[in-house]
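INFO batch 0412 | record 1 of 1 | parsing
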Amino acid sequence: MEEKNWWHILYELLVDKGISVQWAATLNAVALLLLGSLLVFLVDFIIWKLLRTISASTAKRTKTNLDNFAVANRLPRFLAHIFPLILAMDLTPYIFFDFQYAENIAFKFLNILVVLLALRIARSLLNTLRDYLKTLPRFKDKPIDSYIQVFMIFAWAGGILSILAIVTDTEIWKFFTGLGAISAVLLLIFRDTILGFVASIQVSINDMVRIGDWITFEKFGADGDVTEINLATVKVQNFDKTITTIPTYALISDSFKNWRGMQSSDGRRIKRAVIIKQKSIKFLSSEHIEELKRIELIADYLNDQQAKINHSNTQKGIDKTVIINGRNMTNLGVFRKYIESYLASHSAINDEMIMMTRQLAPTAKGIPLEIYAFSSDKRWQNYEYIIADIFDHILAAVPYFELEVFELPTEFRLNS
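INFO prediction complete | emitting tokens
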């Protein structure tokens, strides 16, 4: 004699009460569905409580932050859904044993939940790894978000195809064969994503930009530190605390400036010129040279240079009644030497890096005298202070050499 289960007994009791067979089966299925759902939710709640207690206790005992990030990204919560979902699939045949059509729908729904749960677990796991890797110095400046987004795009594409295959009762490989026909549409829809994916790989391989780099991208008005690099965009926090978003593919298609080399070097470059009026440049007389010898930074230079020039002119029998004859010193040349000596003695200048004062090609405004050196302090505020300090001194020293700095005439400035 076949042993009767409790749901068979419930079904027979409903029939004995005068309820039709169809309604008895329906009420029986509804009752079983409610009981089964209650059981599944109860199991899910118990497992979640156990996992939460275990994970919290483990996170406190261990030294690594990996388990802490797992809890923060709800990985234990999603893992707790696995067993209740398996239980629901096992109960489905018993709940809908008289309704084959409803059983098929329930199985499809549960299989879709399996796919979605797998995607959520994968995303939570990847986010956990991302947060953990960002705490390591080796990976702190790497665009980990880009790789996670790329993986999740493929995962979601596979998940959507799996769901479609479940709903239509079609083998999943047939969906892949049909992708060729709609590839042009997919390329159009995911154009930015594809470009961003390719750009992310090139940016990472070529080490063009890292998180924390200071970049200047004039096209997008960005001038600040990179805070995030993902598949589609690069976020830059400007120095005025505004946020500029740049398409990732723009990093390989347009020109931008990365200041990382300066930040990792031993100094920050100073490259600025003072424009000297051409008509103020002249040969130095003996009286003026003697006066300039009172300037300590160039006194030795003037003595040595004057001795060499006098010896050369005397040896060659140069007529010095006309000052242009023979070798001479000019106020611009001596001023250039003074600036070099001043920079060499400046405490904020790195004397182990290139340092020079050079004369550029004459312009309509005058002769640019450019200072090229490197400050020891690379911090922006201090760097600007050092430049201002140097040029304050240089501009104030110009009159001592009977030179003049170029300025537009007053009437020209008023008319313009």
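INFO post-check: The mean pLDDT is 81.
INFO record closed
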